Amino acid sequence: MYTSNGQEAWRLLGIMAEFASATDRLRGIRPAVSVFGSARLGPDNPWYAKCETISRLLSDAGFAVVSGGGPGLMEAANRGAHGGRSPAVGLNIELPHEQGGNEFQDVGIRFRYFFARKMMFVRFASAYVVLPGGFGTLDELSECLTLVQTGKSRRIPIILVGGDFWRGLIDWMRERLVGDGLIGAQDLDLMRVIDDPPAIVEAIFDFYESRGFTPTRAERDRMLHL
Questions:
Q1: Which of 32, 35, 54 minimizes the C-alpha distance to 202?
Q2: Which CATH class is domain 26-223?
Q3: Taking every pair of C-alpha atoms in the chain, what is the biggest distance, in angstroms?
Q4: What ranges in the chain are assigned the alpha helix state H?
Q5: DSSP characters for 116-167?
Q6: What pTM value is reported for the model?
Q7: How distant is the alpha carbon of residue 76 from its chain centre?
Q8: Is 162 exposed, middle or buried (0-12, 13-18, 19+ CB in 10 A)?
Q9: pLDDT digits (tens, 9 = 90+) for 23-60
C-alpha cells in the first residue's frame, strides 16, 4: 500500500509523541521490574497464582511492576502489584488476545506503535522476570538478551520462572547456539532460572548489592541509542 510523504511525516510525529508521553509518565516509577508471560493463562492456571505472588512480593519490596496490561499473566502481574506497596503499570496495546487493559493498573498507558511499547519495557526495567508464554514472551526475552549481549543496554537480572518449561529451550541454546559457535558459552549466564518467588526478589537485590538501582550516566547515555 502506497503511503505519501505527508502520511509518513504524521506517523513519525505520532511515534515521537508516544515516546515523549510514555517517558514522561514512567519517569518516576524506578526501580521497576518488567514481568512477562502468556495472555492465555487465566486465573484457573497455576502460573497465574505464581505470577501474582511474585508480583506482590516485588511490589512490597519497593519495585513497580510493569506488564503488558492485558489478560492472563499480565493481569496476574498487575493484580499482585496492585495489592502491594508499589505501582502496577500496564503498557497496553490492541492485539487479538488482548482486547482491553486489565483493571489492576495504577498507571496505564496505551500504545499504538509496538516498538515504542517494547522500548519502554526495557528502558525503565531494573530486572526482567519471564514466565511461560508464547511468541510475544519469547520476543521480549530475546530482545532483552540481545540488547545486553551487544552492550546496547545495561546488564540487568533476567530471571526465567518455570524450570520445566524453559529447560528444552536452554538445552537447545547450549547444544546448537553455543555448540555451533553462534553465541559464547558465557552468554547463557545472562539469564537464570529461579522458581521460588522470594528467591527471585532476593536475586534482584543481590545483583544490585554493590551498586544502586539508578542507572549511571554512561548507562543512561547508552539507553538513548537503543
A1: 54
A2: alpha beta
A3: 53
A4: 5-26, 46-60, 73-82, 114-123, 135-149, 163-172, 197-207, 217-223
A5: HHHHHHHHT-SEEEE-S--HHHHHHHHHHHHHHHTTSS----EEE--HHHHH
A6: 0.90
A7: 14
A8: middle
A9: 888 888 889 999 999 999 999 999 999 999 999 999 99
d(CA 89, CA 177): 34
d(CA 117, CA 139): 13
Residue type, 140: E
> pLDDT, tens digit, for every residue of 115-126?
888 889 988 899
Distance of CA 110 to the CA centre of its chain: 16
Place of cell 538513548: 224
Rounded CA-CA distance 113/219 in Å is 25
Domain ranges of the chain: 26-223
Query: DSSP assignment, residue 213?
Result: S
- Report which of residues 160 and 117 the model is more confident about: 160
